[in-house]
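Review this fold:
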Amino acid sequence: MKVTIIEGCISCGLCTSTCPEVFDMGDDGTAKVIAQPEPSQEACVSEAAEGCPVAVIITE
């Protein structure tokens, strides 16, 4: 799985609380991908993507 965050993050923090090994808040206050997920982390990444209120987390 590959994960990216596109423009439009509203800094709600859902992704960072759901999967902190993959997401963190950047210096600009928006979420960033800090590491591509390991297979064991794919479920939390999918949960974060599905829960994102502005649908800016893209998984491939």
Summary: The helical segments are 14-18, 42-51.
